[in-house]
Design goal:
mainly alpha; 6 helices; extended
Amino acid sequence: MKKNWWILTLNGVLAIVFGGLALFATEELIISLSKFFGLLVLIGGILLLLGAFDQKRKKKNYSLMFFEGAISVILGGLIMIFPMQTVRLFLIFIGLWAMLLGLFKIYVSIVMRKILDFNFVLALGGILLFAIGLVLLLDPAYVAGFLMKVLGAIFVLIGIILIYFSFAVKNAQARKG
């Protein structure tokens, strides 16, 4: 690590750049990232299909690999054709999951109220999770923008820490050498 301290610096700079992009993300950037993700899924699906055909040629079981490849090609294509709708649908699924998990936590806190001392904390967590899920369902675009801002701030902070740490490693090496 001492010899390659600059790799930490580079990682820090990249984290800050990514964080800055996320902080100032526009709808176009989100669509571009979604399309890029779709392309990765599509390429992965094509590679799986090629592997399945190779397995078939070798007289081995290829059905699962073929099925996974076909699904990946279809999903990758859909994501690339409908990028914003895909992001919204993903956030809606997360919203439904959060609401169901929140209801489950509330249920568990009620059932376990005689066993747990702090069951109200579980109930509050369930209410909060349900509320987050509801907001995701009502306005997924707003939540996506908010999440991008939070992720951007986290990545900028991580980048600053990495750069600081890289110079600390470099200076430690200089003091020893």
